[in-house]
Amino acid sequence: MSQLKPDVLAAYEAAKGFMPLDEGLALYDAAVGAGRLGLPLLEVGSYCGRSTLLVAAAARESQVIAVTVDHHRGSEEQQPGWEYHDATLVDPELGLMDTLPTFRRTLHRAGLEDHVLALVGRSPQAAAHWGSRLGLVFIDGGHTDEHATADYEGWVPHLAEGGTLVIHDVFPDPADGGQAPYRIYRRALDSGAFTEISATRSLRVLKRTAQGV
Ligand SMILES: C[S@@+](CC[C@H](N)C(=O)[O-])C[C@H]1O[C@@H](n2cnc3c(N)ncnc32)[C@H](O)[C@@H]1O
């Protein structure tokens, strides 16, 4: 396991977000390994920057860039009236979720701003305009089938051979959570192009061993 620096660990624990520490450490470890390819490390779904910190810290170690994509308007379950809504993240003028200011504060406080290229917009549009290979694709954006499938089909073709695919919120048992991330995880394995490296709670780490989606 790669050792997370104490200041990054403290920033992670202080940041708003949903990822428990053991999953975060597994993500960091995967991102450090992926960084050795010398290619950008991509995250879909940055929210307030909690997981972004880890990808950015790994990018800093490998002297590559972390790229993160989010429209910052929140997923379905983060909207008013839903389980994961946080009223402090609503823009008072527009009455819409806006996680971008908190995301920026999180990265600034951790001293990691210079290691992140933040794309603000819809993931499929960003993927359609993306032109280079990636060492890591970490999918933690919208959790509907429409969004998870679009993230998979948009970004996985850019993942280099030997690169790492990480998927969050993979629940084989429907009683534990939504099935869309599980379905893209299964799709990756069933394609024959990926081998599973680790499973930490709902975080799955796969390595690309062949071309294909
Ligand atoms: C579960 S949160 C990400 C949490 C973050 N990875 C963490 O662990 O701290 C999902 C994020 O995906 C974003 N999102 C959902 N659908 C999206 C889409 N189609 N394009 C861009 N961002 C999207 C939401 O705005 C939200 O911030």
Automatic annotation (TrEMBL):
One of its GO terms (cellular component) is plasma membrane. Pfam families: Methyltransf_24 (PF13578). InterPro entries: SAM-dependent_MTases_sf (IPR029063). GO terms for molecular function: methyltransferase activity. It comes from Streptomyces coryli. The keyword Methyltransferase applies. The lineage of its organism: Bacteria, Bacillati, Actinomycetota, Actinomycetes, Kitasatosporales. This is Class I SAM-dependent methyltransferase. GO terms for biological process: DIM/DIP cell wall layer assembly; methylation. Keywords: Methyltransferase, Transferase. It comes from the Bacteria.
